[in-house]
Amino acid sequence: MWRVRWLKPSLNAKLKWHAIAWLLTMIRLTNVFTTNESKKGLTESLGRIVAWWQLLFVKPK
């Protein structure tokens, strides 16, 4: 959705997006240790990490 509206985002916008994505991932990883649903938090955070790496290598069209 983001790339549909802004076809050529600035470097600052890209850095903000990656920072937010990693912040949300780190928050979800801390839920592994602080909540009862640790398996759910771990699988979601690993999914976020894998998706982020895929975005680095396979650019959206």
Structure summary:
With 61 residues, this protein is mainly α. Helix content is 79%, strand content 0%.
Which secondary-structure class do the elements indicate?
mainly alpha
Distance between the termini: 11 Å
- Low-pLDDT runs of 5+ residues are none
* Number of DSSP-assigned strands: 0
Mean pLDDT: 86
Binned, the helix content reads over 70%
What's the number of helices?
3
Rg, nearest Å: 14 Å
- How many domains is the backbone divided into? 1
The biggest sheet amounts to: none
Envelope shape: elongated
Question: N-to-C SSE series?
Answer: HHH
Beta-strand share of residues? under 5%
List the helices and strands and how they pair.
Blueprint: H1 2-5, H2 11-34, H3 38-57
Helix pairs in contact: 2-3
Structure description:
This protein has 61 residues and is mostly helical. It has one domain (10-57). 79% of the residues lie in helices and 0% in strands. The chain is elongated and about 40 Å long. The protein starts with a helix and ends with a helix. 0% of the residues are buried. The mean pLDDT is 86.
Task: Give a quick set of tags describing it.
61 residues, elongated, 3 helices, mainly alpha
